[in-house]
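User: I'll paste a sequence; please echo it back and then give the predicted structure.

Assistant: Echoing your sequence first, then the prediction.
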Amino acid sequence: MLSSRPLLFSLTMGLAVLGWDVPAQAQSAAETQRRIEAAIATAPTADPAQDGKALRDFYRARQGLPAWSGDNAASGKALLAQISGLALAQGLDPAAYALPTGAGEMDADVLISAALLRFGRDLSVGAVLPARNLGGFGAETRGEFDGARFLKALAEGKPLTEQIDVISPQYVGYMRLRDGLEKARAIAAAGGWPSIPDGAKLVPGDTDDRVPVLRRRLIASGDLGDGLAEGRTYDAPLAEAVKRFQLRHGLEPDATIGGKTLAHLNVPADARARQIAVNMERWRWMPHSFGRHHIAVNIAAQQMEVVEDGAVAMSMRVVVGDVKHPTPSMSTTMSSVVLNPAWRVPTSIANKEILPKLRKDPNYLTSSKLQIVDYPEGSPESAGDGVDWNAIGKKFPYRLRQPPGPDNALGQLKFNLTDSDDIYMHDTNNRRVFGRSYRALSHGCVRLERPVELGELMLGPRWQGKLAENIAANRSTRTLMLERTTQVYMMYWTAWTDEAGILHFRDDIYGHDRRLMTAMERSRSPAPRPASGRS
């Protein structure tokens, strides 16, 4: 027969046995719940709404019983001690999970749960929201984390390391970067690498007092062998090491130590470790799976990869937005391609760039193959004849269009992206820019190095080797549906580790790293919560 003993009485007795600091005779389930609620309300959490709910669900499932008090006190302390080392390895600050001092037994139990919960949430979905100005897809894209389930597993004695394997990003890119963080911190702990003094450019064949310093610098980062530390002459092995360093940092591999290369050489090891840590945070913002078929654009590296069946099927250089017109990080889809596209000039470009040029050269529309669409095509009015551009204010009063053709800014193909803030991927009539190492030059859209090859791959086997010929034979503007809708991820990685375990770095062209570092520092100490007013 089921016991008829009231649940409230059972809960009261359970709390008394565990020694909570209220006399058993006066204790009630309602009072227990009130005190738990009060402890949760004042516990420092990064996300009070989500974490508060998880804590309430956790203690409710335990019928209000403590998790880390009495016989379980050692378990709670051991978990907190583990967090210190584990957080550091994951690019998180252990200080964020330290307990406030002076709490009573009930408050201490909730505080331990809150610290464990916060660590789990930070590791699973990130310590800060994935805002676009930090290199994320947007704050509303943050993933889900089942905090109550995480706490329940730990309270049942399941190892913390086992739970970390469950909730941390399972991408090989994250795991490699985690290993890279360990290496960078080891270098920093050993004293880092020396700073190379300013001076004239160093080129192969030079003899200079800075060359031994350069050798030690490259040995410390693994670009030069340990046995090559001696010598004031910039010899061939050292030149190859400099080229390796330049390639790892997105620089022109010319072996010349000029201003840019010197600046990268002199970034301290601990600064590189912090750069790795913020990129690990971005991995925690990613969806649980990219899917076996997708396109990945690394905005900071100005590089694109097409992944088919889990393997890279195509890669190419791209041009991304300049500092004033950054390409946004986003998760979107590609479903169609436009052949021989026309370019409708955005209002912002017409106002800020074309109008000033027309004031200097009234024939600019004709020379640039631009047309005012408010008038019949080919008419003098469509070319702006008779317009006094100096009499026009700051706003361009017409709509502009550039018809298809070899001079079109979009080139021969435009790949449409869904809900992308008018950002798309396209060909370009300026092919020379792909030879540069720095390619943040567009107004936000992504220009492709080999758009025809991408089009053939996306349109399917029947288009292989035929797309360029088809475009040339038919100059009309046409929209073709892709063989399948493909997920597109535009991401901002300034640090990653390749298959060989070699770290790569790129410039923080938009300042996202700097802002994310600041946001992560602020997240370490949640804002104080108001006192509950309990005695």
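The mean pLDDT is 90. DSSP finds 17 helices and 14 strands in the chain.
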